[in-house]
Amino acid sequence: MKVFDVFLRKQRSIEKDVFNYLYTWKKCLEYFKGGMEVYLAEGLGEKFDYYVQEVYKTEERADELRRKVEWEMYSKALIPESRGDILGFLETMDKIPNKAESLVNQIKLQKLEFPKELNKNLERMVALSCEAIQLVYDAATKLFSRNSDIYKLADEIDAKETECDHVEQGMIAKIFEMDIEKADKILLKEFIIELGNLTDRAEDVSDRLTLLSVKRRV
Amino acid sequence: MFYLISALYLGWSLGANDAANIFGTAVSSRMVKFITAGILSSIFVILGSILEGRAGIETISKISTMNLATAGISSLSAAIAVTIMTILRLPVSTSQAVVGSIIGVGVMQKHVALTGLDKIIICWIGTPIGGCIVSIILYVLLARAVNRLRLSWAGFDFMMRAGLIITGCYGAYALGANNVANVTAVFYGAGFLSVQAAALIGGVGIALGIVTFSKGVMQTVGKGIVKLDAFSALIVVLSNAITVHIYAIIGVPVSTSQAVVGAILGIGLLKRAEALRKRAIIGVFSGWIATPVIAALVSMFIYFVTHLTYVG
Question: Which among A11, A146, A218 has CB closest to B157?
Answer without folding.
Answer: A11
